Amino acid sequence: MRVRRVAICAVMLMIVACGWGWGQDTYKDSLIEKCPFYETATGRLAPVYPALAQQIVQDFGITEGICVDVGGGCGSLAMALARITDLQVYMLDIDPWAVRLCNLLVDEGDLTGKVVAYEGDAQDMAFRDNFADLVVSRGSIFFWADQLAGLKECYRILKPGGVAYIGGGFSRILDPETRAPLVQWRMDVTGLHSPDSHRHNISDLVRKARKAGLRHIRVDREPNVGRWIVIRKPDRAGRPAPASQP
Ligand SMILES: C[S@@+](CC[C@H](N)C(=O)[O-])C[C@H]1O[C@@H](n2cnc3c(N)ncnc32)[C@H](O)[C@@H]1O
Question: Which residue minimizes the CA distance to atom 15 of ligand 1?
């Protein structure tokens, strides 16, 4: 009888322990469940972020100061940039669960303080004017209800002489063997027939942005890489940030 009681207590204790999160990753798991993109970002797309970060550093030469990753999700690009530069990176995302997950992954990746995630909307960011040396945004602009407002915000928070790289897709320096299946996957999931087309017309958006007064903004088109917008905010003397390296 006593043995049975002890056994029942032990089983009940185990059930309660599991429910309360005996496993250390319960909080993380609950966040991952709320952020389905995490699986893609840490799975199929994992090789994209270090390559993209490397490309951004190569092209724009910005390795210190402040970087804002707009719509950075669970922080893959923000962390990849923080690992290879001295940039202080702020990751901003509208999804509160992505923000929490990002801050947790940042701690796990020993990047505490180098990357800080905030909840916020690309179309109305809580950063002051002329704040960031570098603004990056991958795969998020296509979800902004008012893309022009988002671009204006990116421009507003850029320091004079700063650069923004905003768009979607992969990296030019990702090796072709890794990129080819990703390009095919993207065409399959989006139903697009060309790897470089996108749901929204980036060229039209750039034209609108120019009309709205954004200077030195252009589309960066490269086969099988995606659609990216480059903004080089003129410095105080009116000169744009230096042109990208080949
Ligand atoms: C496809 S995910 C890309 C995430 C990340 N940039 C990456 O490449 O791994 C799109 C992200 O944009 C965010 N997002 C969508 N609309 C937004 C907005 N208006 N302001 C800020 N973030 C937004 C989503 O919450 C999501 O995390």
Answer: 143
- Closest-CA residue, ligand 1 atom 4, reads 73
Domains of the chain, by residue range, sit at 2-34, 37-232
Q: Which two tokens stand for residue 164?
A: 């923004």
Q: Work out which ligand 1 atom sits closest to the CA atom of 144.
A: 19
Please give the pLDDT value at position 194: 61
pLDDT digit string, tens, across residues 104-143: 999 999 999 999 999 999 999 999 999 999 999 999 999 9
Backbone angles phi, psi at 242, to 5 degrees: -55, 150
- Protein residue with its CA nearest to atom 14 in ligand 1: 71
Give the pocket of ligand 1 (CB within 6 Å): 37, 41, 71-73, 76-77, 93-95, 98, 121-123, 138-140, 143-144
- Dmax (CA) of the chain: 88
Tell me, letter by letter, the H, E, C secondary structure of 116-155.
EEEECECCECCCCCCCEEEEEEECCHHHCCCHHHHHHHHH
Determine the atom of ligand 1 nearest the C-alpha atom of 45.
Answer: 9
> For a pocket test of ligand 1, which of 74, 93, 100, 148 has the largest count of ligand atoms closer than 8 A to its C-beta?
93
3-state helix, strand, coil in the chain (%, to 5): 45, 20, 35
CATH H superfamily, domain 37-232: Vaccinia Virus protein VP39 (3.40.50.150)
Residue position matching structure tokens 């080949």:
246
- Measured between alpha carbons, how far is 210 from 239 in angstroms, rounded to an integer? 16
